[in-house]
Amino acid sequence: MEKKRVVIGLSGGVDSSVAAYVLQKQGYEVIGLFMKNWHDTTGVLKADCPWLDDKFDAQAVAMKLGIPFHMVDLSDHYRKRVVDYMFAEYEKGRTPNPDVLCNREIKFDVFLDKAMELGADYVATGHYCRKKTIEIDGQPVHRLLAGSDSNKDQSYFLCQLSQKQLEKAMFPIGDIVKPEVRRIANELNLVTAHKKDSQGICFVGKVDLPVFLQQKLESKKGRVFIIPEESELFKRDWEKAYGDAPTDEDLENLAQAYVFHPKYGRKVGEHNGAHFYTIGQRKGLNIGGFEKPLFIIGTNVDFNQVYVGMGQEHPGLFRNVLFVAAGETHWVRPDLAMKVGESHRFNLRIRYRQPLQNAIVHCREKGLYIVFDEPQRGITTGQFAAWYAGDELVGSGVIN
């Protein structure tokens, strides 16, 4: 019987290295494909040539495992579909998640097409998540499940994948915990066995964000205002969201981000551009002399203003309700998509590695209103909310 061919994205890290080995052990014909997605070092904190180091490591792993090795340059696609999007979002005062976009637009789209050109039956990555296929009404339905290692679960980063993309996807180490992955790599004497996990923006690396963004967004001086805890801005009747049938008007009002104005506070310093800052951020302000640290609680890019609160429990950092517009809602499981007027309980996270939070999701004409059981810190427009039924990620959307 002819072996199924799997093209794996060899990144030069330990996870994809061991994933390639696991596929081999399972009897697949494995081909390694390295993606070059970025080669501009502007704003990158380690400004040597990290992609070249990664390529050599990926090549060494392929040689050690005895699998063919290819490289593809997807940097034009990456710039247009991920980095340009990122700049556009920051310019609007939103905080995007490039890693989620990279998986949807690059790894499981353009890269998938390149893999098919190599005759692939499937595409594999080193993500810590699992896929299970079931049958509903005679049709295959692919479930995206959290990884077995709860400390490394990366299902959140795949929250925008479609059924078509999942059909071709394989996650060979989804059932393995990270220490075991390291042990296997060490036992095989792979060059990546003790390599640190990558950090920062997918394929770009750890960046000095303002410097990186200044490639497209200009630096401009603006004022920083401190908002006191007792401000009337934070006096919202959250209880209106917790009734049996909250009205559309109540949900819409409570889902609004706080709208700040200088009249609510006083000037405490200056900044270099409101679009360089995000909700919950502490570093980068360089304003001292306060009893507690200052945190960003709001920005206004139109007027180039930044608003801060003192202390990590400041009410401006917390909200109970968020909104995902209908046009920015995505169901990994379309068969579970909610209908207008329905309400369901889900577990949610609004950022990677956040413990799952309990919430009720209300589907309305305009989109989804998510009412959390507990106030959420640092709800940020542009980020993705992902909702789970048990350990299955069933949908996601961009926070408004």
Give the arrangement of secondary structure elements:
Elements: E1 5-9, H1 14-25, E2 29-36, H2 50-65, E3 69-73, H3 75-91, H4 98-117, E4 122-124, E5 129-136, E6 139-146, H5 163-167, E7 169-170, H6 178-187, H7 209-213, E8 222-226, H8 248-255, E9 266-271, E10 294-300, E11 305-310, E12 318-331, E13 343-349, E14 357-364, E15 367-377, E16 384-389, E17 392-399
Parallel strand pairs: 1-2, 1-4, 2-3, 4-7, 8-11
Antiparallel strand pairs: 5-6, 6-17, 8-9, 10-11, 12-15, 12-17, 13-14, 13-16, 14-15, 16-17
Summarize the structure.
This protein has 400 residues and is α/β, with parallel strands linked by helices.
Q: Unreliable stretches, pLDDT < 50, 5 or more residues?
A: none
* Radius of gyration over C-alpha positions, nearest whole angstrom: 23 Å
Q: Largest sheet at a glance?
A: 6 strands, antiparallel, barrel
Quote the distance from N terminus to C terminus: 51 Å
CATH top level assignment of the largest domain: Alpha Beta
Notable traits:
400 residues; Rossmann fold; 2 domains; 8 helices
